[in-house]
């Protein structure tokens, strides 16, 4: 079998399914387990740190691990960096058959830090019988020194190992998500998959097959396809204006607006400038939280105006803001997931009508999942916050597919990873 530690909502598992394989995942989060169940994935709901290793010995040909990244992530307090010496000690002890986790845990500033050492507990037990044949692990970039420690141990056990940082956008993911990767194999030379995409397209040459340009959010969400207009909005609602893009009581999402015909196609290229909603928005429209669903939705002024869209990762001053014709920044969602917003920016306006104010619309979990390369129909379970949390913590399936295909000796076809269609 293929064993998937910290399996989450199924990023690795979905990739394996596309490649014609299946894993069994260990996962603690109840809603991630529910999502996996609805997606038809095998799961044991358990604490990876407490589950015994002996049931797996003699049964595992591949091991996958994506330990929780909250202790290390830029989105959190990053106490894992302060705990890093303790995690290194735990890995060294586990690789020698000594379990010192309980003692080390008492000194950790974040109890989740030691979870990054858990894969070594399983690897040590499996190595006693010459397993697994291959290993694939993923984490935030700051974990790379720990992966290098794993690599040194695995090489001593007869593995070929590669570690490094990969950008998911270089593999067709509509997101510049950088991750520390470890790939190891007993039967082949471990090396990273060849990138298929680049920020600027590279033509085919004598030196290689070339690379396509990075996939944009608009492409992934189907906003640039022949049968769908690109997401530039013209809006009305004022005297002489066109129809409201978000009728009263609507969900007020970009997908709703597109499907209701509020988009107009365009052929020119514009540079978007992202701004906050601006002062005066609440005075004109009322608080979003206090506005009743029966109240008229805010409109985008007259039909003569054109708008373009950007995605803002949160409401902080240093938020990552990307145009819809670019890949998203790294998607991560904390307790305030709904702060990830699409921002409408006026591109052209009648100067006699004065300054226009940008409008913001919350991203949906489905849209976030597509930007993580899950299919639009993926069965996310839970409320909005629980769904967003699962999306942000998941491995992009398309990236996982590129990492796993060589180990499985199968050819990956990116077209098999259906997104918004």
Q: How is the biggest beta sheet arranged?
A: 7 strands, mixed
Under CATH, the topology of the largest domain can be stated as Rossmann fold
Main sheet: strand order: 3-2-1-4-5-7-6
> What would CATH call the homologous superfamily of the largest domain?
Vaccinia Virus protein VP39
Strand content: 15-25%
Count of domain modules:
2
CATH classification, class level of the largest domain: Alpha Beta
User: Which regions have little confidence, pLDDT < 50, spanning 5+ residues?
Assistant: 225-253, 257-305
Identify the overall geometry. Answer: globular
Distance between the termini: 32 Å
Question: Structural class per helix/strand content?
Answer: alpha/beta
Give a quick summary of the entry.
The chain is α/β, with parallel strands linked by helices and 421 residues long. The protein has 13 helices and 15 strands. The chain has a seven-stranded mixed β-sheet with strand order 3-2-1-4-5-7-6, sandwiched between helices. It has a four-stranded antiparallel β-sheet with strand order 13-12-14-15, with no helix packed on it. Strands 8-9 form a two-stranded parallel sheet.
């Amino acid at each position: 079998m293929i064993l998937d530690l910290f399996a989450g909502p199924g990023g690795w598992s979905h990739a394996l399914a596309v490649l014609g394989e299946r894993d069994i995942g260990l996962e603690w989060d109840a809603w991630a387990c529910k999502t996996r169940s609805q997606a038809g994935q095998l799961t044991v709901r358990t604490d990876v740190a407490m589950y015994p290793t002996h049931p797996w010995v003699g049964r595992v040909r591949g091991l996958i691990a994506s330990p929780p990244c909250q202790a290390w992530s830029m989105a959190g307090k990053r106490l894992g960096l302060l705990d890093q010496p303790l995690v290194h000690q735990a890995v060294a002890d586990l690789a020698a058959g000594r379990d010192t986790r309980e003692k080390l845990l008492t000194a950790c500033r974040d109890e989740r830090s030691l979870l990054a050492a858990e894969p070594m507990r399983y690897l040590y037990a499996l190595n006693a019988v010459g397993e697994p044949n291959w290993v694939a692990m993923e984490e935030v970039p700051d974990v790379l020194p720990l992966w290098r420690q794993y690599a040194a141990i695995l090489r001593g056990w007869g593995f070929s190992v590669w570690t490094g940082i990969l950008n998911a956008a270089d593999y067709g993911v509509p997101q510049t998500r950088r991750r520390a990767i470890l790939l190891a194999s007993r039967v082949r030379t471990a090396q990273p998959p060849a990138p298929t995409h680049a920020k600027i397209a590279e033509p085919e040459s004598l030196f290689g097959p070339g690379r396509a340009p990075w996939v944009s959010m608009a492409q992934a969400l189907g906003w640039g396809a022949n049968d769908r207009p690109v997401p530039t909005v013209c809006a009305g609602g004022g005297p002489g204006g066109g129809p409201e893009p978000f009728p009263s009581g609507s969900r007020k999402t970009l997908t709703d607006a597109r499907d209701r015909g509020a988009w107009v196609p365009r052929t020119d290229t514009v540079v978007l400038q992202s701004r906050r909603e601006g002062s005066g928005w609440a005075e004109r429209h009322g608080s979003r939280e206090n506005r009743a669903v029966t109240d008229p939705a805010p409109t985008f002024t007259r039909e003569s105006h054109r708008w373009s869209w950007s995605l803002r990762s949160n409401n902080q001053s240093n938020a990552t803001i990307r145009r819809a014709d670019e890949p998203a920044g790294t998607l991560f969602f904390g307790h305030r997931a709904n702060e990830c917003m699409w921002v409408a920016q006026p591109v052209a306006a009648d100067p006699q009508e004065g300054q226009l104010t940008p409008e913001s619309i919350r991203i949906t979990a489905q849209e976030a999942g597509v930007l993580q390369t899950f299919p639009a129909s993926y069965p996310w379970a839970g409320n909005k916050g629980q769904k967003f949390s699962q999306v942000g913590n998941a491995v992009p399936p398309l990236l996982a597919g590129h990492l796993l295909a060589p180990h499985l000796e199968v050819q990956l076809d990116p077209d098999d990873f259906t997104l918004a269609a």
